[in-house]
Amino acid sequence: GKTPLPKANPATWRKISHFYSKDDKRIYYLNKLLKEADYNTFEVVVLTSPEGYKLPYGKDKNQYYNYGNPLSEEEALEEVNSPL
Predict the structure, then answer these.
(1) Which of 30, 39, 47, 60 has its CA 20 to 30 A from that of 22?
(2) Quick one: pLDDT band at residue 51, thresholds 50, 70, 90?
(3) What is the Cα–Cα distance from 53 to 84, expressed in whole angstroms?
(4) Does the pLDDT at position 30 exceed 70?
(5) What are phi and psi of 76, to 5 degrees?
(6) Which residues pair with 66 in a beta bridge?
(7) Distance between CA 30 and CA 1 in Å, rounded?
(8) What residues contact residue 8 under an 8 Å CB cut-off, 6+ apart?
(9) CA 23/CA 47 separation, integer angstroms
């Protein structure tokens, strides 16, 4: 869409993967600034459900992110392993 990213630097902005992106200082999910995300360790990881579905999660040294919402590793794995 055309919704501007809060505080984003257009000159350095780039897509990371799926709906996650970053500029030179911040991480975003869609047009939402992920204030808690650790910039230096943030990555997108793909977790596989028991049914074989590939599910993208954001992850940094502190936690996981699903749809931009922070959750613990335990919560992320519980979500992935729950029947769809």
Answers:
(1) 47
(2) very high
(3) 9
(4) yes
(5) -60, -45
(6) 69
(7) 9
(8) 23, 26, 28
(9) 25
16-29 confidence digits (pLDDT tens): 998 999 999 999 99
Provide CB contacts within 8 A for 61, sequence distance 6+.
Answer: 38, 41
Q: Which residues contact 25 (CB under 8 A, 6 or more apart)?
A: 7, 9, 39
DSSP, residue by residue, 19-52: TEEE-SS-EEETTEE-TT--TTT-EEEEEE-TT-
In angstroms, the CA 5 to CA 21 distance is: 10
- CA-nearest of 17, 18, 19, 16 to 3 is 19
More confidently predicted of 27 and 82? 27
Q: Which two tokens stand for residue 84?
A: 């769809």
Q: How much is the pLDDT for 84? A: 66
